Backbone:
């Protein structure tokens, strides 16, 4: 089961943090189709946030087709995301790299900046093609009736 951690100083809306953390768990294979999400009450008890915030996050996840609410039973995962299981060899390499970065004196923001720069380089979205210049119609000269 996923455990939500709310960072009240991040500037990111609480419900968005829940959505993001749920998606991360889906990408890592920590949540799989059929798994039950914690109830709103369980999330509220663990994080001291408003129940409506949890419900808003769950509605967003439902709108995206990732979960489904079953009346009287709870909210369940419908589908997973990505293909980066938590036990991936790539994760182990990233763990080693992060440990080396910390040993080298980099803080979390330094590591995030470095990682984001590398992600942007390797996973950049293609730049939109500039619109073809509009062709102007040739000028037409109309001869009007004399006034």
Residues:
């Amino acid at each position: 089961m996923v455990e939500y951690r709310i960072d009240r100083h991040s500037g990111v809306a609480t419900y968005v943090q829940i959505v993001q953390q749920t998606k991360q768990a889906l990408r890592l294979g920590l949540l799989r189709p059929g798994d039950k999400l914690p109830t709103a009450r369980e999330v509220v008890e663990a994080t001291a946030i408003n129940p409506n915030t949890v419900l808003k996050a769950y509605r967003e996840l439902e709108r995206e087709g990732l979960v489904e609410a079953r009346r009287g039973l709870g909210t369940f995962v419908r589908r997973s995301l990505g293909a980066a299981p938590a036990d991936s060899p790539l994760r182990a390499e990233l763990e080693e790299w992060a440990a080396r970065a910390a040993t080298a004196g980099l803080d979390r923001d330094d590591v995030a900046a470095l990682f984001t720069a590398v992600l942007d380089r390797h996973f950049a979205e293609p730049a939109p093609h500039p619109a073809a210049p509009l062709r102007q119609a040739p000028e037409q000269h109309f001869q009007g009736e004399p006034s």
